Amino acid sequence: MKRTLFDDEHEMFRDSARTFIGRELTKNFEQWEHAGIIDKTVFTKAGAAGILGVAVPEQFGGGGLSDFRFNAIFLEEVCRAGVMNAGLGISNHADVVVPYIIKYGTPEQQQRWLPGLASGELVGAIAMTEPNTGSDLAAISSSAIRDGDSYVLTGNKVFISNGINADIVIVVCRTGFEGPAQRNLSLLVVEADSAGFSRGRNLDKVGQHSADTAELFFDNVVLPADNLLGEEGRGFYQLMTMLPQERLSIAVMALAHARAAFDETLTYCKTRHAFGQPIGSFQNSRFQLATMRTELDVAQAFVDAQLTAHLTGELTGEESAQAKWWCTDLNSRVLHTCVQLHGAYGYMEECAVGRAWRDGRAMAIYGGTNEIMKDIIGRRMLGV
Questions:
Q1: Which of 53, 213, 257, 367 pairs as cysteine with 79 (C-beta 3.0–4.6 A)?
Q2: Cβ pair 176, 233 in contact under 8 A
Q3: Which residues pair with 115 in a beta bridge?
Q4: Pairing relation of β-strands 124-127 and 168-174?
Q5: 192 lies in the same domain as 84
Q6: Can you give the residue ranges of the Acyl-CoA dehydrogenase/oxidase N-terminal domain (predicted)?
Q7: What is the CATH number for 352?
Q8: Does the residue 184 lie in any domain?
Q9: Domain for residue 187, yes or no?
């Protein structure tokens, strides 16, 4: 079906994104996959290409366009090019970190950090997950104690995207201990040169190899009170406000990633022969291909509707949870079928579909597991 979501300006940006991806990501992708991290200079190149700071106000070096459709285009194009893993860090920076500074940063904080974030001279990360919390944000134990004009931050985080490359990290921590945990969380910005801040391993993941994911440690890190992002004790509510966009970005990527694998598989079914005929000519193959295409098209209409709702400020947390769950679950089903249709070739490391199957699995986990997404949807429906 023809999509009506994008206008000429968006398509011009798509062309620019394709050029950037081909010039800077595709040619180095295999090297980064083996290294387990992309070259940090990619961020400054992405900044120069206008990819990082689309929503950043013009006075801070950005495009001044509060339109998430541009971000969605980049996600679609890295998946189409088969280099999703190299784009994950860029997405985390531009789709997740930058919006927090735009929405909650004071004018002084915005002047301090947004120009570098827009240019790529600063790489951003957000640190929520801890070894014993997972999706349970209210159980976070990292704490920041107010001491005069400073906070003293102690704790550790794990599974942090961009953790190795990051220059600034938005840290979710506990700043109070009385009453409900949700009222005691705050966001503090930690700069990488802060005394007491250190990085652990670049974690050895099953997939998404070139997207660095790290352990972070905070050993009595003294931070100026000016590094508090938003209001003290409002961190949980800030996260709940911003997570819908993060989950929508995961849905966009999961869907584009699955469609790229489907396109690859469709071509394979037309050209691969068995028993003297293309494997796509067998009824089972046709049924499988028809099912995947239909489900992808239905999901695309849903996600495009959500992108439109997000543009007008009407996207709810419940709706973004639906998109995140459905599209990542669909990704798993489509990739499973694509590998099966490829047979033994689909299980080879050299096969793009096999690698996509491996890389896509994490989408149902990060950004809140799909079980958490279903719980959010159910609670909102029942009012509990």
A1: 257
A2: yes
A3: none
A4: parallel
A5: no
A6: 8-121
A7: 1.20.140.10
A8: yes
A9: yes
Tell me if 311 is assigned to some domain. yes
Does the annotation count 246 as an active-site position?
yes
> With contact defined as beta carbons under 8 Å apart, do 73 and 10 qualify?
yes
Residues 84 and 151 in one domain: no
Q: Where are the beta strands (DSSP E) in the chain?
A: 124-127, 143-147, 150-161, 168-174, 185-191, 197-202, 213-224, 228-229, 273-274, 277-278
Task: Verify that 267 and 221 share a domain, yes or no.
Answer: no
- Domain holding 83, by residue range, is 8-122
Q: What amino acid is encoded at 243 in this protein?
A: L
Of the residues 182, 210, 232, the one at which a domain ends: 232
Side chain identity at residue 301, one-letter code: A
Is 3 contained in some domain? no
- Are both 212 and 244 inside the same structural domain? no
Q: What are the distances in angstroms from CA 279 to CA 265, 273, 285?
A: 11, 6, 7
Structure tokens, 383:
């009012």
CATH code, domain with 88: 1.10.540.10
Indicate if 90 and 177 belong to the same structural domain. Answer: no
Task: Compute the distance between CA of residue 74 and CA of residue 82 in angstroms, rounded to an integer.
Answer: 12
- Taking Cα atoms as reference points, which of 252, 261, 372, 254 lies closest to residue 305? 252
In DSSP terms, 168 is beta-bridged to 124, 191
Q: Is the dihedral of CA 30, 32, 36, 42 positive or negative?
A: negative
Check whether residue 184 and residue 295 sit in a common domain: no
Rounded to the nearest 5 degrees, what angle is found at the Cα of 374, between the Cα atoms of 368 and 380?
105
Catalytic residue among 33, 215, 246, 319: 246
Residue 11: how many other CB atoms lie within 10 Å: 11
> Digits of tens for pLDDT over the chain (384 positions)?
789 999 999 999 999 999 999 999 999 999 999 999 999 999 999 999 999 999 999 999 999 999 999 999 999 999 999 999 999 999 999 999 999 999 999 999 999 999 999 999 999 999 999 998 877 787 899 999 999 999 999 999 999 999 999 999 999 999 998 888 788 999 999 999 999 999 999 999 999 999 999 999 999 999 999 999 999 999 999 999 998 999 999 999 999 999 999 999 999 999 998 888 888 888 999 999 999 999 999 999 999 999 999 999 999 999 999 999 999 999 999 999 999 999 999 999 999 999 999 999 999 999 999 999 999 999 988 887
Q: Number of structural domains, the chain?
A: 3
Structure tokens at 339: 């590998």
How far from chain centre, in Å, is Cα 70? 14
